[in-house]
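Researcher: Please translate sequence to structure tokens.
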Amino acid sequence: MVSLSDIRTAVELIRGRVLHTPLVYSPTLSSLSGAEVYLKLETLQLAGSFKVRGAMAGILGRKGTIGALGVITASAGNHAQGVAVAARETGIPATIVMPAWTSITKQEAAKGYGAEVIVQGSSLEESLEAARRLAAGGRTLIHPYDDPLVVAGQGTIGLEILESLPDADTVIVPVGGGGLIAGIATAVKGIRPNIRIVGAQAAACPSAVAALAAGKVVRVNAQKTIADGIRVQQIGESVFPVLQEKVDGVVLVGEEEIALAMLLLLERKRVIAEGAGAVTLAALMNGQVPVRRGEKVVLIVSGGNVDSFLLERVMRYGLRRSGRILHITTRIEDTPGNLARLLGVIASEGGNILQINHVRAEPGMPLQDIEVSIDIEVRGQPHGDELRKALREQGYASILS
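Model: Translation complete:
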């Protein structure tokens, strides 16, 4: 297992090559949760995530043994970019094997940092097998989480947390393959054994929870998740004992909770977090991690490399689920002034129209009518209910949603 001494060595190894990211207090999240909430913003790290720490340590720690073909790894995105950046900085070729479902944005980002990208495999595990086969031909494998040098690099985050907030009570960490939480738990508990370390994992891929329940590493079926960065079907063999010994629990969060956490970070802190980076806030806000009033809680916001189109969909979904966007569909008579009167009611109630669509001559609809669908920005669920009531009182009784 990785030791505190290994992590301190990694600090020196990567010093000056990665950023010491800020730990930011959030009054809003503190008020909402009752705890004192701090965000460790690895979204501001090089390549947009914590992964460059482990990648840099993994490459620099074995640079003398890396051949002319360079390094290879498998990743759904962030580790790929971390390895690509670290390889570029050290003048070493890098090859990345990515699963077929990896977003085009993350593929292009890795290429942009100078890596060769191979898309192969329907899961991260299949991509890792492909990377291992290629490594046998002369490349050095930098495993995304089951590598002691990589784990030590990720653990440098734990030392930075204690440097900025020595009296932290709880640290909540995203869990995919387990390298990040293993490194942070080793660093933090090596200095302050009583700090609580809790993992947060997407319910769509509960590999750590399943392993802890079974008492051994197990492979789980992975569903689609917006937290694709932690969609790992089997946690690392070498990090599992650390989870058993040093982690106080791992909780699961759902897709809706992750989306709402992403929205909350964006609106209240202007932090763009990917799904994997927002699971820690989701776990805090859904009550899975109980906290005392005034308890100092650190949330690891592990990355911000979210696909722009996914971000747009998640934000719209989150706004609708939180009652900030009201969607209505109604039918009106297709005569001059009727649509204007409908929109006037919405305006008089303080609704802001975001999108409108009207359809004529649908099967089963009277020929003299049109169907109007409108997305309306409202202040919240109570305001939406008031607007809906006002529409009904004005004769729009056929509102469908």
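Researcher: Any highlights?
Model: The chain has 15 helices and 13 strands.
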